[in-house]
Protein backbone atom coordinates (compact mmCIF):
# COMPACT_ATOMS: atom_id res chain seq x y z
CA UNK A 1 0.00 0.00 0.00
CA UNK A 2 1.10 3.53 -0.79
CA UNK A 3 0.54 5.73 2.24
CA UNK A 4 0.52 9.48 1.87
CA UNK A 5 1.47 9.86 5.53
CA UNK A 6 4.14 8.13 7.62
CA UNK A 7 2.01 8.54 10.77
CA UNK A 8 -0.89 6.81 9.07
CA UNK A 9 1.37 4.00 7.90
CA UNK A 10 2.71 3.49 11.44
CA UNK A 11 -0.76 3.29 12.94
CA UNK A 12 -1.99 0.89 10.24
CA UNK A 13 1.04 -1.36 10.75
CA UNK A 14 0.38 -1.46 14.48
CA UNK A 15 -3.24 -2.51 13.95
CA UNK A 16 -2.24 -5.07 11.32
CA UNK A 17 -0.18 -6.90 13.97
CA UNK A 18 -3.37 -8.29 15.51
CA UNK A 19 -4.20 -11.85 14.48
CA UNK A 20 -6.84 -11.93 11.75
CA UNK A 21 -6.51 -8.20 10.96
CA UNK A 22 -5.11 -7.47 7.51
CA UNK A 23 -3.86 -4.15 6.18
CA UNK A 24 -7.21 -3.20 4.63
CA UNK A 25 -9.15 -3.78 7.86
CA UNK A 26 -6.41 -2.01 9.80
CA UNK A 27 -6.69 1.02 7.51
CA UNK A 28 -10.46 1.08 7.95
CA UNK A 29 -10.03 1.01 11.74
CA UNK A 30 -7.42 3.78 11.73
CA UNK A 31 -9.55 6.02 9.47
CA UNK A 32 -12.46 5.39 11.82
CA UNK A 33 -10.29 6.57 14.74
CA UNK A 34 -9.27 9.67 12.75
CA UNK A 35 -12.93 10.58 12.26
CA UNK A 36 -13.62 10.34 15.98
CA UNK A 37 -13.21 13.18 18.43
CA UNK A 38 -9.92 13.62 20.27
CA UNK A 39 -11.56 12.67 23.57
CA UNK A 40 -12.89 9.34 22.33
CA UNK A 41 -9.51 8.47 20.85
CA UNK A 42 -7.96 9.31 24.22
CA UNK A 43 -10.56 7.12 25.94
CA UNK A 44 -9.58 4.30 23.61
CA UNK A 45 -5.83 4.53 24.25
CA UNK A 46 -6.40 5.05 27.97
CA UNK A 47 -8.54 1.90 28.27
CA UNK A 48 -5.67 -0.08 26.75
CA UNK A 49 -2.97 1.55 28.88
CA UNK A 50 -4.97 1.10 32.09
CA UNK A 51 -5.72 -2.52 31.27
CA UNK A 52 -2.07 -3.28 30.62
CA UNK A 53 -0.87 -1.48 33.74
CA UNK A 54 -3.46 -2.48 36.31
CA UNK A 55 -4.83 -5.87 35.32
CA UNK A 56 -3.92 -8.80 37.57
CA UNK A 57 -3.87 -12.53 37.06
CA UNK A 58 -5.52 -14.37 39.97
CA UNK A 59 -2.82 -15.85 42.24
CA UNK A 60 -4.74 -19.12 42.53
CA UNK A 61 -6.13 -19.86 39.07
CA UNK A 62 -4.46 -17.31 36.70
CA UNK A 63 -7.83 -15.97 35.56
CA UNK A 64 -7.85 -12.25 34.66
CA UNK A 65 -8.99 -10.11 37.55
CA UNK A 66 -8.94 -6.59 38.95
CA UNK A 67 -7.80 -7.91 42.34
CA UNK A 68 -5.13 -10.35 43.46
CA UNK A 69 -7.75 -13.12 43.65
CA UNK A 70 -10.55 -13.47 41.09
CA UNK A 71 -14.27 -13.43 41.84
CA UNK A 72 -14.63 -17.14 41.20
CA UNK A 73 -11.87 -18.21 43.59
CA UNK A 74 -13.15 -15.91 46.37
CA UNK A 75 -16.80 -17.03 45.91
CA UNK A 76 -17.50 -19.32 48.89
CA UNK A 77 -20.62 -20.73 47.22
CA UNK A 78 -18.52 -22.46 44.60
CA UNK A 79 -17.16 -25.98 44.98
CA UNK A 80 -13.41 -25.55 45.43
CA UNK A 81 -12.81 -29.31 45.41
CA UNK A 82 -13.61 -29.43 41.68
CA UNK A 83 -11.09 -27.79 39.31
CA UNK A 84 -11.77 -27.25 35.62
CA UNK A 85 -8.52 -26.84 33.65
CA UNK A 86 -8.86 -24.60 30.57
CA UNK A 87 -6.54 -23.08 27.97
CA UNK A 88 -7.31 -19.38 28.44
CA UNK A 89 -9.81 -16.96 29.97
CA UNK A 90 -12.09 -17.08 26.91
CA UNK A 91 -12.82 -20.69 27.85
CA UNK A 92 -13.65 -19.61 31.42
CA UNK A 93 -16.16 -17.12 30.00
CA UNK A 94 -17.61 -19.74 27.63
CA UNK A 95 -18.09 -22.30 30.42
CA UNK A 96 -19.48 -19.67 32.82
CA UNK A 97 -22.09 -18.80 30.18
CA UNK A 98 -23.36 -22.40 30.17
CA UNK A 99 -24.33 -22.21 33.90
CA UNK A 100 -23.44 -25.91 34.09
CA UNK A 101 -20.34 -25.66 36.26
CA UNK A 102 -20.07 -24.62 39.89
CA UNK A 103 -16.47 -25.51 40.62
CA UNK A 104 -13.33 -23.40 40.23
CA UNK A 105 -10.95 -23.00 37.29
CA UNK A 106 -7.32 -23.24 36.43
CA UNK A 107 -6.16 -21.25 33.40
CA UNK A 108 -3.11 -22.80 31.72
CA UNK A 109 -2.35 -19.84 29.48
CA UNK A 110 -1.86 -22.03 26.42
CA UNK A 111 -1.43 -25.63 25.32
CA UNK A 112 1.68 -27.76 24.97
CA UNK A 113 2.79 -27.32 21.36
CA UNK A 114 6.31 -28.45 20.43
CA UNK A 115 5.80 -27.00 16.93
CA UNK A 116 5.43 -23.50 18.43
CA UNK A 117 8.10 -24.12 21.04
CA UNK A 118 5.62 -24.16 23.93
CA UNK A 119 6.55 -26.72 26.57
CA UNK A 120 4.97 -27.59 29.94
CA UNK A 121 7.20 -25.04 31.72
CA UNK A 122 5.63 -22.21 29.70
CA UNK A 123 2.19 -22.97 31.15
CA UNK A 124 0.91 -22.59 34.72
CA UNK A 125 1.20 -26.35 35.37
CA UNK A 126 3.46 -26.09 38.43
CA UNK A 127 0.88 -23.75 39.97
CA UNK A 128 -1.76 -26.44 39.33
CA UNK A 129 0.27 -29.18 41.01
CA UNK A 130 0.76 -26.85 44.01
CA UNK A 131 -3.04 -26.59 44.29
CA UNK A 132 -3.39 -30.37 44.08
CA UNK A 133 -0.89 -30.86 46.94
CA UNK A 134 -3.36 -29.28 49.38
CA UNK A 135 -5.24 -32.63 49.38
CA UNK A 136 -8.64 -30.91 49.17
CA UNK A 137 -9.19 -31.48 45.46
CA UNK A 138 -11.51 -34.38 44.55
CA UNK A 139 -11.75 -34.09 40.77
CA UNK A 140 -9.97 -32.30 37.92
CA UNK A 141 -11.88 -31.77 34.67
CA UNK A 142 -9.67 -31.24 31.62
CA UNK A 143 -11.74 -28.97 29.35
CA UNK A 144 -9.26 -28.52 26.50
CA UNK A 145 -9.70 -28.24 22.74
CA UNK A 146 -10.07 -31.44 20.72
CA UNK A 147 -6.89 -30.71 18.77
CA UNK A 148 -3.48 -32.33 18.70
CA UNK A 149 -2.15 -29.70 21.12
CA UNK A 150 -5.15 -30.23 23.42
CA UNK A 151 -4.70 -33.99 23.41
CA UNK A 152 -0.96 -33.68 24.08
CA UNK A 153 -1.66 -31.41 27.05
CA UNK A 154 -4.39 -33.76 28.35
CA UNK A 155 -1.97 -36.70 28.16
CA UNK A 156 0.73 -34.78 30.03
CA UNK A 157 -1.62 -33.41 32.71
CA UNK A 158 -3.30 -36.78 33.22
CA UNK A 159 0.06 -38.35 34.07
CA UNK A 160 0.92 -35.46 36.43
CA UNK A 161 -2.42 -35.46 38.25
CA UNK A 162 -2.62 -39.24 38.64
CA UNK A 163 0.36 -38.97 41.06
CA UNK A 164 -2.04 -37.33 43.55
CA UNK A 165 -4.75 -40.05 43.31
CA UNK A 166 -7.29 -37.44 42.18
CA UNK A 167 -10.05 -38.26 39.67
CA UNK A 168 -9.31 -36.92 36.20
CA UNK A 169 -12.08 -36.47 33.62
CA UNK A 170 -12.30 -34.94 30.16
CA UNK A 171 -15.32 -33.16 28.67
CA UNK A 172 -17.45 -35.28 26.34
CA UNK A 173 -16.69 -35.31 22.63
CA UNK A 174 -19.37 -36.19 20.12
CA UNK A 175 -21.86 -34.65 17.74
CA UNK A 176 -22.99 -31.12 18.58
CA UNK A 177 -26.59 -30.35 19.54
CA UNK A 178 -28.52 -29.49 16.40
CA UNK A 179 -25.90 -31.26 14.30
CA UNK A 180 -27.18 -33.45 11.45
CA UNK A 181 -25.62 -36.88 11.40
CA UNK A 182 -24.79 -36.96 7.70
CA UNK A 183 -22.61 -33.84 7.95
CA UNK A 184 -20.60 -34.97 11.00
CA UNK A 185 -17.02 -36.01 10.21
CA UNK A 186 -16.12 -39.69 10.44
CA UNK A 187 -13.75 -39.47 13.40
CA UNK A 188 -16.27 -37.61 15.57
CA UNK A 189 -19.12 -39.90 14.58
CA UNK A 190 -17.05 -43.05 15.10
CA UNK A 191 -15.86 -41.91 18.52
CA UNK A 192 -19.36 -40.83 19.53
CA UNK A 193 -20.59 -44.38 18.90
CA UNK A 194 -17.64 -45.95 20.71
CA UNK A 195 -18.12 -43.68 23.77
CA UNK A 196 -21.95 -43.88 23.85
CA UNK A 197 -23.65 -43.41 27.23
CA UNK A 198 -26.91 -44.83 28.71
CA UNK A 199 -29.94 -42.79 27.65
CA UNK A 200 -30.77 -41.85 31.25
CA UNK A 201 -27.34 -40.26 31.71
CA UNK A 202 -27.78 -38.12 28.60
CA UNK A 203 -30.68 -36.14 30.10
CA UNK A 204 -29.90 -32.77 31.63
CA UNK A 205 -30.51 -32.71 35.36
CA UNK B 1 -20.44 -11.65 28.02
CA UNK B 2 -19.41 -12.17 31.65
CA UNK B 3 -16.12 -10.40 32.25
CA UNK B 4 -14.07 -11.22 35.29
CA UNK B 5 -12.41 -7.80 35.12
CA UNK B 6 -13.88 -4.34 34.65
CA UNK B 7 -10.68 -3.13 32.96
CA UNK B 8 -10.93 -5.95 30.47
CA UNK B 9 -14.58 -5.17 29.80
CA UNK B 10 -13.75 -1.49 29.16
CA UNK B 11 -10.99 -2.32 26.70
CA UNK B 12 -13.16 -4.85 24.86
CA UNK B 13 -16.02 -2.35 24.59
CA UNK B 14 -13.64 0.24 23.15
CA UNK B 15 -12.43 -2.19 20.47
CA UNK B 16 -15.98 -3.31 19.71
CA UNK B 17 -16.83 0.28 18.66
CA UNK B 18 -14.93 -0.21 15.39
CA UNK B 19 -17.13 -1.02 12.39
CA UNK B 20 -17.11 -4.72 11.65
CA UNK B 21 -15.51 -5.68 14.97
CA UNK B 22 -17.78 -7.71 17.26
CA UNK B 23 -17.26 -8.49 20.92
CA UNK B 24 -15.57 -11.83 20.27
CA UNK B 25 -13.02 -10.34 17.88
CA UNK B 26 -12.52 -7.41 20.27
CA UNK B 27 -11.80 -9.82 23.12
CA UNK B 28 -9.30 -11.71 20.98
CA UNK B 29 -7.53 -8.45 20.13
CA UNK B 30 -7.43 -7.30 23.76
CA UNK B 31 -6.06 -10.66 24.97
CA UNK B 32 -3.45 -10.43 22.24
CA UNK B 33 -2.42 -7.00 23.57
CA UNK B 34 -2.26 -8.40 27.11
CA UNK B 35 0.16 -11.10 25.97
CA UNK B 36 2.45 -8.50 24.40
CA UNK B 37 5.24 -6.73 26.21
CA UNK B 38 4.57 -3.39 27.88
CA UNK B 39 6.79 -1.61 25.32
CA UNK B 40 4.90 -2.92 22.30
CA UNK B 41 1.57 -1.95 23.87
CA UNK B 42 3.01 1.52 24.47
CA UNK B 43 4.18 1.62 20.86
CA UNK B 44 0.64 0.76 19.77
CA UNK B 45 -1.09 3.47 21.82
CA UNK B 46 1.61 5.99 20.92
CA UNK B 47 1.16 5.40 17.18
CA UNK B 48 -2.54 6.20 17.59
CA UNK B 49 -2.02 9.26 19.77
CA UNK B 50 0.67 10.67 17.46
CA UNK B 51 -1.48 10.09 14.40
CA UNK B 52 -4.45 11.85 15.97
CA UNK B 53 -2.36 14.78 17.20
CA UNK B 54 -0.01 15.38 14.29
CA UNK B 55 -1.75 14.26 11.13
CA UNK B 56 -2.77 16.99 8.67
CA UNK B 57 -5.26 17.13 5.85
CA UNK B 58 -3.76 18.70 2.72
CA UNK B 59 -4.95 22.30 2.40
CA UNK B 60 -5.58 21.86 -1.31
CA UNK B 61 -7.12 18.40 -1.72
CA UNK B 62 -7.92 17.17 1.85
CA UNK B 63 -5.75 14.08 1.39
CA UNK B 64 -4.09 12.81 4.58
CA UNK B 65 -0.56 14.13 4.89
CA UNK B 66 2.24 14.76 7.36
CA UNK B 67 2.68 18.29 6.00
CA UNK B 68 0.30 21.13 5.20
CA UNK B 69 0.33 20.09 1.53
CA UNK B 70 0.36 16.44 0.43
CA UNK B 71 3.01 14.79 -1.74
CA UNK B 72 0.68 14.59 -4.72
CA UNK B 73 -0.25 18.28 -4.72
CA UNK B 74 3.39 19.38 -4.34
CA UNK B 75 4.63 16.99 -7.06
CA UNK B 76 5.36 19.24 -10.08
CA UNK B 77 5.46 16.23 -12.41
CA UNK B 78 1.73 15.70 -11.98
CA UNK B 79 -0.92 17.31 -14.16
CA UNK B 80 -2.62 19.86 -11.90
CA UNK B 81 -5.20 20.74 -14.59
CA UNK B 82 -6.87 17.33 -14.10
CA UNK B 83 -8.70 16.73 -10.81
CA UNK B 84 -10.03 13.34 -9.75
CA UNK B 85 -12.79 13.68 -7.12
CA UNK B 86 -12.99 10.73 -4.69
CA UNK B 87 -14.91 9.86 -1.53
CA UNK B 88 -12.03 9.22 0.89
CA UNK B 89 -8.29 8.61 1.05
CA UNK B 90 -8.72 4.86 0.54
CA UNK B 91 -9.88 5.67 -2.98
CA UNK B 92 -6.76 7.82 -3.53
CA UNK B 93 -4.63 4.84 -2.52
CA UNK B 94 -6.62 2.49 -4.77
CA UNK B 95 -6.28 4.77 -7.80
CA UNK B 96 -2.58 5.44 -7.11
CA UNK B 97 -2.01 1.68 -7.13
CA UNK B 98 -3.36 1.43 -10.68
CA UNK B 99 -0.62 3.75 -12.05
CA UNK B 100 -3.20 4.97 -14.59
CA UNK B 101 -3.68 8.50 -13.28
CA UNK B 102 -1.22 11.37 -13.29
CA UNK B 103 -3.46 14.24 -12.23
CA UNK B 104 -4.29 15.48 -8.74
CA UNK B 105 -7.07 14.55 -6.35
CA UNK B 106 -9.85 16.08 -4.34
CA UNK B 107 -11.06 14.10 -1.32
CA UNK B 108 -14.71 14.82 -0.47
CA UNK B 109 -14.64 13.11 2.91
CA UNK B 110 -17.91 11.28 2.25
CA UNK B 111 -20.88 11.18 -0.08
CA UNK B 112 -24.17 13.08 -0.03
CA UNK B 113 -26.57 10.85 1.90
CA UNK B 114 -29.83 12.39 3.14
CA UNK B 115 -30.60 9.10 4.97
CA UNK B 116 -27.52 9.57 7.16
CA UNK B 117 -28.01 13.33 7.40
CA UNK B 118 -24.96 14.12 5.25
CA UNK B 119 -25.55 17.12 3.00
CA UNK B 120 -23.25 18.95 0.55
CA UNK B 121 -22.08 21.32 3.30
CA UNK B 122 -20.63 18.38 5.27
CA UNK B 123 -18.25 17.59 2.41
CA UNK B 124 -15.30 19.59 1.07
CA UNK B 125 -17.30 20.79 -1.95
CA UNK B 126 -16.79 24.53 -1.35
CA UNK B 127 -13.03 23.87 -1.29
CA UNK B 128 -13.42 22.16 -4.67
CA UNK B 129 -15.29 25.09 -6.22
CA UNK B 130 -12.54 27.39 -4.89
CA UNK B 131 -10.01 25.31 -6.82
CA UNK B 132 -12.14 25.48 -9.97
CA UNK B 133 -12.31 29.30 -9.77
CA UNK B 134 -8.56 29.52 -10.50
CA UNK B 135 -9.40 28.84 -14.17
CA UNK B 136 -6.52 26.40 -14.58
CA UNK B 137 -8.58 23.23 -14.35
CA UNK B 138 -9.41 21.55 -17.68
CA UNK B 139 -11.19 18.37 -16.55
CA UNK B 140 -12.77 16.95 -13.42
CA UNK B 141 -13.14 13.16 -13.15
CA UNK B 142 -15.82 12.02 -10.71
CA UNK B 143 -14.53 8.65 -9.41
CA UNK B 144 -17.31 7.84 -6.95
CA UNK B 145 -18.97 4.57 -5.96
CA UNK B 146 -21.76 3.23 -8.19
CA UNK B 147 -24.27 3.47 -5.34
CA UNK B 148 -27.29 5.70 -4.77
CA UNK B 149 -25.18 8.03 -2.61
CA UNK B 150 -22.45 8.10 -5.25
CA UNK B 151 -24.94 8.91 -8.01
CA UNK B 152 -26.58 11.65 -5.93
CA UNK B 153 -23.19 13.22 -5.31
CA UNK B 154 -22.24 12.95 -8.99
CA UNK B 155 -25.50 14.66 -9.99
CA UNK B 156 -24.92 17.49 -7.51
CA UNK B 157 -21.25 17.98 -8.40
CA UNK B 158 -21.94 17.87 -12.12
CA UNK B 159 -24.38 20.78 -11.80
CA UNK B 160 -21.89 22.74 -9.67
CA UNK B 161 -18.90 22.16 -11.95
CA UNK B 162 -20.80 22.91 -15.18
CA UNK B 163 -21.06 26.55 -14.03
CA UNK B 164 -17.30 26.83 -14.66
CA UNK B 165 -17.42 25.41 -18.22
CA UNK B 166 -15.01 22.65 -17.22
CA UNK B 167 -15.23 19.14 -18.70
CA UNK B 168 -16.81 16.64 -16.28
CA UNK B 169 -16.35 12.89 -16.72
CA UNK B 170 -17.24 9.84 -14.69
CA UNK B 171 -15.24 6.61 -14.50
CA UNK B 172 -16.51 3.80 -16.74
CA UNK B 173 -19.04 1.35 -15.38
CA UNK B 174 -19.41 -2.11 -16.86
CA UNK B 175 -18.35 -5.70 -16.36
CA UNK B 176 -15.16 -6.22 -14.37
CA UNK B 177 -12.06 -7.73 -15.95
CA UNK B 178 -12.17 -11.50 -15.46
CA UNK B 179 -15.93 -11.33 -14.95
CA UNK B 180 -18.03 -14.00 -16.61
CA UNK B 181 -20.98 -12.59 -18.52
CA UNK B 182 -23.58 -15.00 -17.15
CA UNK B 183 -22.90 -13.95 -13.55
CA UNK B 184 -23.04 -10.18 -14.17
CA UNK B 185 -26.22 -8.51 -12.83
CA UNK B 186 -28.76 -7.26 -15.36
CA UNK B 187 -28.37 -3.54 -14.68
CA UNK B 188 -24.59 -3.62 -15.12
CA UNK B 189 -24.80 -5.77 -18.24
CA UNK B 190 -27.58 -3.66 -19.77
CA UNK B 191 -25.71 -0.41 -19.12
CA UNK B 192 -22.45 -1.87 -20.42
CA UNK B 193 -24.16 -2.58 -23.76
CA UNK B 194 -25.79 0.85 -23.88
CA UNK B 195 -22.49 2.63 -23.12
CA UNK B 196 -20.32 0.43 -25.39
CA UNK B 197 -17.15 1.99 -26.82
CA UNK B 198 -15.23 1.46 -30.10
CA UNK B 199 -12.83 -1.50 -29.83
CA UNK B 200 -9.79 0.69 -30.50
CA UNK B 201 -10.63 2.87 -27.50
CA UNK B 202 -10.85 -0.16 -25.19
CA UNK B 203 -7.16 -1.00 -25.61
CA UNK B 204 -4.77 0.18 -22.89
CA UNK B 205 -2.31 2.75 -24.17
Q: What is the H/E string of chain A?
A: HHHEEHEHEHEHEHH
Helical proportion of chain A, percent range = 40-55%
Q: Structural class of chain A, please?
A: alpha/beta
List the total number of helices of chain A. Answer: 9
Poorly predicted runs of chain A: none
Terminus-to-terminus distance of chain A:
57 Å
Largest interface: A-B, 54 and 54 residues
What CATH architecture of the largest domain in chain A would you give? Answer: 3-Layer(aba) Sandwich
Average pLDDT rating of chain A: 90
How are the strands of the largest sheet of chain A arranged?
A: 4-3-5-6
What would CATH call the class of the largest domain in chain A? Alpha Beta
Radius of gyration of chain A: 22 Å
- Overall 3D geometry of chain A? globular
**For this entry, what is the oligomeric state of its chains?**
homodimer
Strand count, sense and barrel status of the largest sheet of chain A are: 4 strands, parallel
Topology:
The structure is a homodimer of 205-residue chains.
Chain A: H1 6-15, H2 23-35, H3 38-54, E1 56-57, E2 64-65, H4 71-74, E3 79-86, H5 89-98, E4 103-107, H6 125-133, E5 139-142, H7 148-162, E6 167-170, H8 186-194, H9 199-202
Parallel strand pairs in A: 3-4, 3-5, 5-6
Antiparallel strand pairs in A: 1-2
Amino acid sequence: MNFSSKLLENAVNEFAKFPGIGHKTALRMVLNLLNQSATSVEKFTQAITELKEKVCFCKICRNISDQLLCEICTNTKRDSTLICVVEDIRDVMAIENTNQFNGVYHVLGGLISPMDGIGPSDLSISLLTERLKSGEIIEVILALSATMEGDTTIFYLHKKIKEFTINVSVIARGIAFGGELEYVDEVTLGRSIATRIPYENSLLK
